[in-house]
Amino acid sequence: MLRTLRLSLATATSILALAAFAFAHHGSADFDASKITTITGTVIEFAFINPHALLTLEVKDPSTGKIAKWHGELTSPSSLAQLGWNKNTLKPGDEVTMTGMPLKSGAPAMAIRKLVKNGELIPVGGAGAA
Fold first, then answer.
1. Integer angstrom CA distances of residue 14 from 50, 58, 63, 101
2. Which of the four, 26, 49, 63, 84, has the lowest number of CB atoms within 10 Å?
3. Given the DSSP bridges, would you call strands 37-47 and 120-122 parallel, antiparallel or unpaired?
4. How far apart are CA 69 and CA 62, in angstroms?
5. What is the pTM of this model?
6. How far apart (Å, rounded) are the C-alpha atoms in residues 90 and 37?
7. Each residue of 74-95: pLDDT tens digit?
8. Cβ count within 10 A of residue 64
9. Residue pair 29/102 in contact by the 8 Å Cβ criterion
10. How many Å apart are CA 68 and CA 60, to the nearest integer?
11. Sign of the Cα pseudo-torsion (105, 108, 109, 110, in order)
C-alpha cells in the first residue's frame, strides 16, 4: 500500500513537472532552431499526454560521469498515434538517442526531431522531423 502510494506520488510529481515545462514554452520560440543536439540515455519517464508527449532521459556525461535529466518534447499523442505510437512505445529502461533543437536557455531539454531506439528510427512527425 505504502509502495503504491509512493509510486503514485512520484508519477504525479513527474507529470506535473513535465506539464509545467511544456506549458512554459508552448510553441517553438524557446527552442534554438539554429542548433541541433543529440544525446543518448535511458528512459525514466514517458508521458503520452496532451498537448505534447514528453520524454525524460537520464544521460551520463562521458567526461564527468555525472548523470543529468534531459527532457524531450514530441508532437501530440494523436499525431504520434497516427504514426503507430501508444503509451507503451517507450518504457523506463529503454535506451534511446534523441536529436532535436535545444532550449535557448541552455536547460537540458529539446524539441525532438529524431528518435532512435535499439538502432531503429522511430517516426516522430512534426515540422523538420527526420
1. 15, 14, 28, 22
2. 63
3. unpaired
4. 14
5. 0.74
6. 20
7. 999 999 999 999 999 999 999 9
8. 8
9. no
10. 6
11. positive
